Amino acid sequence: MNPWIRLRAAVVLLAFVAAASGCANMYVDRTTKEVPAAQFKKPASARPVQVLFEFQTKGVANARATELLKTRVVDQIKASGLFSAVAETPVDGGALLSIMLNNVPLTDDVFSKGFVTGLTFGLAGSQVSDGYVCTARYLGGANGTPLTKQSRHAIHTTIGASAAPGNATKADSPTAAVYTMTQQVLSNVLNDLSQDAQFK
Question: b vs e for 78-108, b when ≥16 Cβ sit within 10 Å of the residue's Cβ?
């Protein structure tokens, strides 16, 4: 079977199981913690920047998720205090900040785990973990030095009678889990960028 068809079938099955059992819970991993903007190293003279954001699923652009998160990402960058202005169009000086958030699977054999949970009507639990890699690429103008920073995060989903994963915080909803993960992982790459001596 085509791997994309198999993956889609697994997602549909997991969604069905979650709806049928009413026992699906999402947890945001606590390994990656939010870095408050107050801890960022602010530049002596902030400059405007153009921001580009894209969410990917296994390296493939995901337009729906990009649209869901774009405003929050741009607003968080504005609130960082690292730039004098943040726009989605070219700015004076040509500074460009590209943020890419890529969703990559961490748990193998998703299909079989969901299948087992479905057969036992939620009595046998399973856990699926999704990894997220946030990459920030900054270019401070035509003659600037390209800077790249990267941070990782994870969201865990339990289905059926599965114990809560360790070192994770339960989210109120799937959307809340994604919002929290995005805010935390983005804060880390922005902090790393601000601490770089070549960031101007």
Answer: eebebbeebeeeebeebbbbebbbbbeeeee
Measured CA to CA, the distance from residue 64 to residue 80 in angstroms comes to 25
Residue 200, pLDDT score:
77
pLDDT band at 165 (very low <50, low <70, confident <90, very high): confident
Residue closest to 26 by CA, chosen among 194, 132, 181: 181
160, 123 Cβ separation under 8 angstroms: yes
Give tens-digit pLDDT for 101-121.
Answer: 999 988 544 434 443 434 434
- Which domains, and CATH codes, for the chain? 3-195 (3.30.160.150)
Tens digits of per-residue pLDDT, 184-193? Answer: 999 999 999 9
Nearest CA to 36 out of 99, 79, 85 is that of 79
Question: Sign of torsion, CA 63 137 180 123?
Answer: positive
* H/E run at residue 77: helix 63-79
Q: How far is CA 42 from the centre of its chain?
A: 24
